[in-house]
Amino acid sequence: MIAPVPEFTTIQTHFAGQEIAPLAARFGTPLYLYDVGRIAQRIEDLAAFDVVRYAQKACSNLAILDRVRRAGAVVDAVSFGEIRRALAAGFSPRGDDDRPAGIVYTADIFDRESLDLVVEHGIHVNCGSPDMIDQLGERRPGAEVTLRINPGFGHGHSQKTNTGGEQSKHGIWHEQVDDCLLRADRHGVTVTGVHMHIGSGTDLEHLSQVCQAMERTVATIGRTVTTISSGGGLPVPYKSDESFIDLQRYFELWDAARNRISDSLGHRVTLEIEPGRYLVAEAGCLVAEVRAVKRMGGNLFYLLDAGFNDLARPAMYGSHHPIALSPRDGSDHDRPEVDAIVGGPLCESGDIFTQQEGGFVCSRPLPIAQVGDYLLLGNAGAYGFAMSSNYNSKTRAAEVMIEDGQVKLIRSRETFDDLVRGELIPE
């Protein structure tokens, strides 16, 4: 049973039980807030799966990783840095008969640093390219690997989030499985898992096709398979007319496929799921201060001290995020609504939070705002801070988590010294 989403109203004075205005005054803005209890609830939603493996690229702060681990999930890493983060957060690199591998490296290539770290710590690899089998086999003969398969079709809310089909760079093309098995045999590598992820926002019709493709792939590989992964991409509602996927039905489809695979192989197969956005999106919000209110012809603009350097999804994908006003004085009195365009401080015309895919600027009905009020951009926990940058020489935001009624700083706001660290002016 999916826990209900707290209503995101147009005027919001609290987040996770805490007053927003004092938090903004204490930590400054832009500011990321995370409701840790919401993350634990979302992990619990997926308890029917044997293994919940968090795709940490969605939000990789060490404190968040630590709480994900405490809630019983393991982790997926897609880079050298993410492996190091997982180790620093206490995840065990290996598994045993009773526990899954705490860290799995999933990628389409090995950069040299990642391969060194995988070999050093004996980390399980989910190979997204045939070349990875050779590169790992040469360094670690006898390794066990998972193959990430591109089944030839994909799905996503944006073409940029579609990870299947022949236009996607991700995974091993489904017709190349036999070649991969030959490569594995040359190095004594055993294929023990199959992973299949076709993009974000997977619906049940596509899911049924993925399950069938998974069964065909496992039949080709054979009895060495002990684990299958459904990937991630579980949808999160960003608009009032959107809803969660039917998780019970989602699990039933995958469980039925797993059981058929188990029967055909003659042994029980573990079923993993790999959520990223689903675990952390609703748990986070970005708090920004209104620094200017101005008219441009017939348009009203609210300009914030946060830009797409802080939250890139609207500019990158045309993604919708709910927006609420949080008055500076903490009052929750109703204010008349106006149609407003919400933008940031960057020297870029695309620095607009209220836009659609393709860069089309649109307005949003919002309460009348004044300079000094705050705006909250909701559902910003996934691919929010994780995709932030120093564009325009902006320093990155502070991060704060709220846990059991306590406010805890988990990342200090960057300083100018942080911004230029590593830069050199030669003689």
Largest sheet: 9 strands, mixed
Helix count?
12
The residue fraction in helices comes out at 25-40%
> Which class best fits the helix and strand makeup?
alpha/beta
Report the uncertain regions: 156-163
Strand elements, count: 22
Q: Could you tell me the mean pLDDT?
A: 92
Residue fraction in strands = 15-25%
- Radius of gyration, CA atoms, in whole angstroms: 23 Å
What is the 3D form? globular
Q: Give the termini distance in whole angstroms.
A: 64 Å
Model description:
With 427 residues, the chain is of the alpha/beta class. Helices cover 27% and strands 24% of the residues. The strands form 4 sheets. Strands 3, 13, 14, 15, 16, 19, 20, 21 and 22 form a 9-stranded mixed beta sheet that branches. The chain has an 8-stranded parallel beta barrel with strand order 4-5-6-7-8-10-11-12, surrounded by 6 helices. A two-stranded antiparallel sheet has the order 1-2. A hairpin with a 3-residue loop joins strand 17 (355-356) and strand 18 (360-361). Helix 6 (130-139) runs parallel beside helix 7 and helix 8 (204-221) runs parallel beside helix 9. The termini are far apart.
Could you give a short description of this structure?
The chain has 427 residues and is α/β, with parallel strands linked by helices.
SSE topology sketch:
Layout: E1 14-15, E2 18-19, H1 20-27, E3 31-35, H2 36-45, E4 51-55, H3 62-70, E5 74-77, H4 80-88, E6 103-107, H5 112-121, E7 124-127, H6 130-139, E8 144-150, E9 172-173, H7 177-186, E10 190-195, H8 204-221, E11 227-229, H9 247-265, E12 270-273, H10 277-280, E13 284-296, E14 299-304, H11 313-317, E15 323-326, E16 337-343, E17 355-356, E18 360-361, E19 364-367, E20 374-377, E21 398-403, E22 406-411, H12 416-420
Parallel strand pairs: 3-21, 4-5, 4-12, 5-6, 6-7, 7-8, 8-9, 8-10, 10-11, 11-12, 14-16
Antiparallel strand pairs: 1-2, 3-13, 13-14, 13-20, 15-20, 16-19, 17-18, 21-22
Helix pairs in contact: 6-7, 8-9
